[in-house]
Each structure stands twice: as C-alpha cells, then as structure tokens.
User: What shape does this take?
Amino acid sequence: MVLMGSVAGCVSHPPAANAMPDWVNELPEGESVAVGSASYEIFGEAKARENATMKALSALALQKGGVVDLEGEVNNFQAVSNANGGESVSGRSVVSTKVVIKGKDIPVKGRVQSYWKDTSARRVWVLIVEEK
Assistant: This one.
C-alpha cells in the first residue's frame, strides 16, 4: 500500500522563556494530532525539524492502523527573531510523503500547528493536526 500525503501550515510561537508547551507531554483532545521530536545537536535545526515532522506524520499514519514505512521530504521556510531573551519563529513547512501501510492507500493530510525548541535538551518538537 502506498500513502501519499502533504502537510502545509503556518507556524509561530511567542518569545516566552522557552517554557515547554503542554502538547509535548499531553496531546490536545478532540483532534487527530501527533507529536514528533528530534535532536539538532549533530545535523542542525533544519534537519531536526524535518525528522520531527516525519515522525509526527508516521504517528498520524499509525493512528489509522498498520505497520508504517514512511519516506518524505520537508521544505521549511522560516524567519527567526530574538528579543528580550526569547526566540520567535514564524514560517511555513511543506511535507511530501510516501507511506506504505499493509498494502492500502490511505491519505494522510495534516498541518504543522506548532514547533518548540528545547534549548537545554537540544531538541525540536513538532505538533501536527490532521486535516480531513
């Protein structure tokens, strides 16, 4: 089975004191959502965002049932600004994926709702919401 999907979204988070958002540990109720994370220590933040996004897409596909094999490409367009000791990131992410789940074609479409950068653990987190 081959699954083709895409993700597009506008992303921003306020320049808070890098406080961990609630969705990192507890997903919002009432929506099909998934979270992914990846370290940016070795390959940098752009690659970590890509990896975290692909992990979240895999989790969305798994919610539909089955064993998942996911290949994809993430194109990020972002602007970063620093003010008052905080960091603000705004941008857009476009994800193209091919997912294989037990021989079925299952569309997965979602949008990146939020990114969070954990500067102490050197990880980025992404929250994706499925669009129906």
The beta strands are 3-13, 33-39, 68-83, 86-101, 108-118, 123-130. The helical segments are 45-63. The chain has a mean pLDDT of 75. Residues 3-130 form one domain.
